[in-house]
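Would you kindly consider the sequence and fold I have copied below?
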Amino acid sequence: MPDNFEASDQKVDFDAKYNALKYFLGNEVEIHKSSSNLYTILPKEDTELGDQVTEAIYGDLTNWEDVTRKIMVSSGLAKATIVLLNPENPSLKIYTAKNAEETYDAVTEAFGDSEEADTDEDSDTSDDTTDDPSEETTSDEETSEEADIDEEVTE
């Protein structure tokens, strides 16, 4: 052993999966290893990816497909599960992918199919001429409850 090196029993932790994620996702995310095959990623503020994720959680899905594709490819390269956390509330997951397959997408569930759903609803209701009486009952019940609460407060 050379003179300028000291022996050490410290282990070097080389995580090929982490390194693959870091290489592919770059410095736009914080990567945390939760277990041997599970990584959480949190988009950093003031980055392109961070801005795209924030826009998506508020309903602007312009770049959401690019974000999800990048995460799916990353999960395939690392052969791991990746959980994308909400940058505004990191305790909430908004997207997961495992081995290049999407397993959960809260953004698309919330906003993604709204146009298709409206089209389907319109076509379904165009044939149905009867109104749904349960909606009126709910409104009447709410009004009744509000009146009861108002009476209790004024008495």
About this structure: The CA atoms of residues 113 and 153 lie 43 Å apart. Strands lie at 29-35, 38-43, 81-86, 89-98, 101-105. Confidence is low (pLDDT under 50) at residues 114-155.
